[in-house]
Design a protein that fits this description.
alpha+beta, 5-stranded mixed β-sheet, two-stranded antiparallel sheet, 4 helices, about 25% helix, about 30% strand, globular
């Protein structure tokens, strides 16, 4: 993207203050099977949880899924350290399905949002969103959360 008038922070895949980031569209449809979400949106999720399934984590602990979930994440897909590029990737995928998203949102028992994780490399200079991402998120009536993590270099 070109630097637009009045903007300080250009889009940069090597965002200097970021150690790493990703974004995830999360949909919790209660009893609706995640495969139905995939059919409605015409999108394959990066991960899904199905109520009643048992999963084992990396530490060997097994638990039963209590709530179905459908997830579209940029983690290990979008390699940029600029959160705007992660959001644009998700928004590019889901905007064509805006009517299906609205239909899902009309279901009282369905919740959805975009959650972002951003790890600071330097302790300051956090993520930036431009109006373009904010408008697109707003037009889809999606909540956005930011989990910003700061790490201290112990050298």
């Amino acid at each position: 993207m070109n630097k637009l008038k009045g903007r300080w922070v250009e889009v940069s895949s090597d965002y200097p203050s970021c150690k790493g980031c990703y974004a995830t569209l999360t949909i919790y449809p209660k009893l609706l099977h995640p495969d139905i979400i995939s059919e409605m949106l015409g999108i394959t999720p990066t991960r899904q949880n199905i109520i009643g399934e048992k999963i084992t984590n990396s530490m060997g602990r097994t638990r039963e899924i209590k709530k179905s979930g459908w997830f579209l994440s940029t983690e290990n897909i979008v390699l940029s350290k600029d959160l705007r590029e992660h959001l644009d990737w998700i928004l590019d995928k889901i905007e064509p399905a805006s009517q299906a998203i609205e239909k899902l949102q009309s279901r009282k028992e369905t919740t959805m949002s975009i959650s972002c994780v951003w790890h600071s490399l330097t302790g300051d200079g956090g993520p930036v969103l431009w109006p373009e991402q904010m408008i697109r998120i707003s037009n889809l009536n999606l909540e956005l959360s930011l989990d910003v993590c700061f790490f201290v270099d112990e050298q």
